[in-house]
From TrEMBL:
Organism: Deinococcus radiophilus
NCBIfam families: glmS, PRK00331.1
All residue ranges annotated as the Glutamine amidotransferase type-2 domain in the record: 2-216
Protein name: Glutamine--fructose-6-phosphate aminotransferase [isomerizing]
Domain of life: Bacteria
A GO-annotated cellular component: cytosol
Reaction(s) this enzyme catalyzes, per UniProt: D-fructose 6-phosphate + L-glutamine = D-glucosamine 6-phosphate + L-glutamate
GO molecular function, one term: glutamine-fructose-6-phosphate transaminase (isomerizing) activity
């Protein structure tokens, strides 16, 4: 995944591709490459590291041609190096492609291709598609791409060309893709900023669309070849707005990117057809008998959900520590301890030092991390990447839900491998978890977002908030309070709902908004009992309820509904209204949500 650019027209393709990729550098990446053709041959150049490495190489030895494709890669399958960089080609170099997303069934497809004599150069899932297209190709590139995608499961924005054709074929499912319409020239990109220097006329490619670009213009079809009409939109964003995808802030954009981020975290690891979880790790699931989770801030609350999931599903005892305290409390660590570091950046100094403390005591270490190539990934024994993509907003949103999803994967995998979950239960939870991208997309529907905005505007003048939750959604309350504090500067406290009567109940009066996570769970009745205690003292209850819960509506002054789902995956869905409540409260107060005062994205000093 990360940045895609394509061009066909009368101009120098190399200059346009490099310029376009430079406008996507804000998305983060670890390598870059381009392929350029003239209709008779095609040449590829790619380099690990920054785009400047590729640009310098091309300055010394330029590629000539007037159509081509380019890519900046954020590594998923295979380490960041020249070979794993995109574009990928077939053995003879005739077919070239770039790909964002994840091919879920790539191993199965790769094994079949190897048996049929194909030779692979890279470790990536993307290269598999190039060989599938090669097998299907009989002179019609469009049909070959269509036939290959019929065999593929997963998420993709795929852009393909062939040395014998002045055309570019692209298709999208889940991963974003936009087409630019110029005067006698056509463009493709994964995001609008790459194209604004050349055209303001854009067509946003939808899931299941295939687009064919040529010197004559473009055609759009579905994956079965039937014509599709898409509206050409005029984009009037400035450069900064373009990087935000038309959203008002990076945080808002990243909230709405969560269905894609969750797809990246889960796809390729959850197999509904087999009812199992597959993690690309050398970790021995029976090599430890206790777990220490070490993290800071939002990552700590992701780890708190992880503790619930690991203990309930894998039946492993878990200790959870704030990283800044862990190394100084002299934790009891043995060679039967698995220490898990949770960090978006992989650079958080307190967490890194905590892992060093655990390693010194003989523990194995595992990182739940978003950023590849970070300090933690170089020091830890094992890494479970969350693949959320770059997160620019200081207040974490998509990284949080992706880290929680990674813990869900780990807990399911350990339950499966250690035998604490039956095959039937694993299959059921795998099926439930695969629905997460769709459920989160539903939670972000216009109607639900408007509902949260209305609540935020109603209470934006409150000086204090209380957040309550129970069980696996106790951490959701803590994360909700943290988000509100971070970006609106309103004081907020979070408590386990059953703990309220042991102190916080003294705070409740008719000025205090109390947000209660009361979605479907085995503790719902107890949670509603706690709500009654709040109401009896005049507290203004904002209830988070599951769709269809009409019985408990009367217990809240305001109600926010979320899609109904299994309790074990509900913290991910329930995080969405918490993020939106914080966002709209801060926005109503006129705060800069992307740059909250006194905060930094990555804390690299103690």
């Amino acid at each position: 995944m990360c940045g895609i650019v394509g061009y066909i027209g009368p101009k120098d393709a190399q200059e346009i591709l490099i310029s376009g990729l430079s406008k996507l550098e804000y998305r983060g990446y670890d390598s870059a490459g381009i392929a350029i053709g003239d209709g008779a041959c095609i040449a590829t150049r790619k380099k690990a590291g920054k785009l400047a490495n590729l640009a310098e190489d091309l300055e010394r030895a330029p590629l000539s041609g007037s159509f081509g494709i380019g890519h900046t890669r954020w590594a998923t399958h295979g380490p960041p190096n020249d070979t794993n960089s995109h574009p990928h080609t077939t053995e003879n170099g005739d077919i070239v492609l770039v790909h964002n997303g994840i091919i879920e069934n790539y191993l199965e497809l790769k094994h079949g291709l190897l048996e049929r004599g194909h030779e692979f150069k890279s470790d990536t899932d993307s290269e598999v598609v190039a060989h599938l297209i090669e097998e299907a190709y009989t002179g019609d590139l469009e049909e070959a791409v269509r036939a290959s995608l019929a065999q593929v499961r997963g998420a993709y924005a795929l852009v393909v060309t062939h040395k014998d054709h002045r055309e570019i074929v692209a298709a999208r499912t889940v991963s974003p893709l936009v087409m630019g319409v110029g005067e006698g020239e056509m463009f493709l990109a994964s995001d609008v900023p790459a194209l604004l220097n050349y055209t303001r006329q854009m067509v946003f490619i939808q899931d299941g669309d295939m687009v064919i670009l040529s010197d004559d213009g473009y055609r759009i079809t579905d994956l079965q070849g039937q014509p599709v009409q898409r509206e050409v939109e005029t984009i009037d964003w400035d450069a900064e707005a373009a990087e935000k995808g038309g959203y008002d802030s990076y945080m808002q954009k990243e909230i709405f990117e969560q269905p894609q981020a969750l797809s990246n975290t889960l796809l390729g690891r959850l197999h509904d057809d087999q009812g199992n979880v597959e993690l690309d790790t050398q970790l021995d699931p029976n090599s430890f008998d206790r777990i220490h989770i070490v993290a800071c801030g939002t990552a700590y609350y992701a780890g708190m959900v992880g503790k619930y999931l690991l203990e309930q599903l894998a039946r492993v005892p878990v200790e959870l520590d704030v990283a800044s305290e862990y190394r100084y409390r002299q934790p009891v660590v043995t060679d039967r301890t698995l220490a898990i570091a949770v960090s978006q950046s992989g650079e958080t100094i307190d967490t890194l030092e905590g892992m060093r403390e655990a390693k010194a005591g003989g523990a194995q270490t595992l990182g739940v991390i978003n950023a590849k190539g970070s300090s933690m990934t170089r020091e830890l024994d094992h890494t479970l990447y969350v693949h959320a993509g770059p997160e620019i907003g200081v207040a974490s949103t998509k990284a949080y839900t992706s880290m929680v999803s990674a813990f869900l994967l780990l807990a399911l995998w350990l339950g499966q491998e250690r035998g604490t979950l039956s095959k039937e239960e694993v299959a059921r939870l795998v099926h439930e978890a695969r629905a997460l991208p769709r459920l989160v997309a539903e939670a972000l529907s216009d109607e639900r977002v408007a509902q949260v905005r209305e609540v935020a505007q109603k209470y934006h003048q409150a000086r204090d908030y209380l957040f309550l939750g129970r069980g696996v959604n106790n951490p959701t309350a803590y994360e909700g309070a943290l988000k509100l504090k971070e970006i609106s500067y309103i004081h907020a406290e979070a408590y386990a709902a059953g703990e309220m009567k042991h102190g916080p109940i003294a705070l409740i009066d008719d000025h205090l908004p109390v947000v209660v996570v009361a979605t479907e769970s085995r503790l719902l009745e107890k949670t509603i009992s706690n709500v009654q205690e709040v109401r009896a003292r005049g507290g203004r209850v904002i209830l988070i309820l599951s769709d269809g819960d009409t019985e408990n509506v009367q217990n809240g002054e305001d109600v926010i509904y979320v899609p109904r789902c299994d309790e074990m995956i509900s913290p991910i869905v329930n995080a969405i209204p918490m993020q939106l409540l914080a966002y709209f409260t801060a926005d109503t107060l006129g705060k800069d949500v992307d740059k909250p005062r006194n905060l930094a994205k990555s804390v690299t000093v103690e």
